[in-house]
């Protein structure tokens, strides 16, 4: 499903890009030019997302023994860089148009074409964000948020150009394009910083951390204590590791049964989870015992 969505995003991006460049060609508006230029970034980002998703689904091998999940973060970082580059190109065009403002040609036809492109983008961005979250795909979610930013941009551009047509103030066109560029720069910053967090092995959020603690506590009967719980996210995969204290007289087989029970419980509620449990004897405990539930240190 994820691969098909990434491939479809390229086709949608090409169609929307063609419509937006047509709107710019009809009107000569620098604001519509900025909107069209961002569509090029959408297409390039969709290609990068397809590559990243394809790589991330490859099985683990000798060189990448934990899998290829992080490939999607590289795609998201590339998308953020492209967004920033598009914003700088727009600012260059804004300066050129600001020094020589001109009235728009065929504004209503161009705005109508751009509105159709924006509607297509809005529908597709919603699909990418929803399906990307379900599949835990950072590349698809980043692509969806970027396209949704494009939708917001299109709405602002259309509203501003309608005002420019009615007022006859030509300078509104490059002014709008400048605001678009600033917004794009901000979105690029968010995409890059979010992706870098993933590359730096960010932990699960506090709510998910507490859910993991609860699952371990509920299914670790026979153990004395659990401590040093650590998590990290790598694309679709969640890595969980912790130390489990058992009676020093417990056999390896008995402790293994507890580990299997905990792993099965975590896999039942968390997709693509990888669990590492370090079993320790009771002299490694950090808390006094005697409670019926397995405590966390």
Automatic annotation (TrEMBL):
GO cellular component: plasma membrane
A Pfam family hit: ZT_dimer
Gene Ontology biological process terms from the UniProt entry: intracellular zinc ion homeostasis
Keywords: Membrane, Transmembrane, Transmembrane helix, Transport
Range of residues in the leader sequence: none
Cellular compartment(s): Membrane
Protein origin, superkingdom: Bacteria
Primary localisation category: membrane
Membrane topology classification: Multi-pass membrane protein
SUPFAM superfamilies xrefs: Cation efflux protein cytoplasmic domain-like, Cation efflux protein transmembrane domain-like
Domain Cation efflux protein cytoplasmic: 205-281
Residues of the Cation efflux protein transmembrane domain: 8-200
InterPro entries in alphabetical order: Cation_efflux, Cation_efflux_CTD, Cation_efflux_CTD_sf, Cation_efflux_TM, Cation_efflux_TMD_sf, CDF_Transporter
GO MF annotations, alphabetized: cadmium ion transmembrane transporter activity; ferrous iron transmembrane transporter activity; zinc efflux antiporter activity
Transmembrane segments: 39-60, 72-95, 107-129, 150-172
Classification via NCBIfam families: CDF (TIGR01297)
UniProt family annotation: Belongs to the cation diffusion facilitator (CDF) transporter (TC 2.A.4) family.
Protein name: Cation transporter
Lineage: Bacteria, Pseudomonadati, Pseudomonadota, Alphaproteobacteria, Hyphomicrobiales
């Amino acid at each position: 499903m994820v691969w098909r969505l990434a491939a479809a995003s390229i086709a949608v991006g090409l169609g929307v890009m063609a419509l937006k460049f047509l709107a710019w060609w009809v009107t000569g508006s620098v604001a519509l030019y900025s909107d069209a230029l961002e569509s090029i970034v959408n297409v390039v980002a969709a290609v990068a997302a397809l590559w990243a998703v394809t790589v991330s689904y490859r099985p683990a091998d000798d060189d990448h023994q934990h899998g290829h999940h992080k490939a999607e973060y590289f795609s998201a970082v590339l998308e953020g860089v492209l967004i920033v580059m598009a914003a700088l190109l727009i600012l260059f065009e804004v300066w050129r148009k600001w020094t020589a403002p001109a009235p728009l040609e065929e504004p209503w036809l161009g705005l109508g074409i751009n509105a159709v492109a924006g509607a297509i983008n809005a529908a597709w961005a919603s699909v990418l964000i929803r399906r990307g979250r379900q599949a835990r795909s950072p590349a698809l979610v980043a692509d969806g948020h970027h396209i949704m930013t494009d939708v917001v941009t299109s709405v602002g551009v259309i509203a501003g150009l309608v005002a420019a047509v009615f007022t006859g103030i030509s300078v509104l066109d490059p002014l709008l394009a400048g605001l678009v560029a600033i917004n794009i720069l901000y979105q690029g910053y968010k995409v890059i910083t979010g992706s870098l967090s993933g590359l730096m092995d960010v932990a699960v959020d506090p709510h998910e951390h507490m859910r993991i603690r609860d699952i371990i506590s509920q299914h670790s009967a026979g153990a004395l204590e659990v401590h040093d719980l650590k998590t990290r996210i790598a694309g679709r995969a969640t890595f969980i590791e912790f130390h489990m204290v058992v009676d020093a007289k417990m056999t390896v087989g008995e402790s293994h049964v507890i580990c299997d029970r905990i792993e099965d419980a975590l896999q039942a509620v968390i997709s693509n989870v990888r669990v590492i449990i370090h079993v320790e004897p009771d002299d490694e405990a950090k808390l006094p015992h005697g409670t019926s539930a397995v405590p966390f240190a």
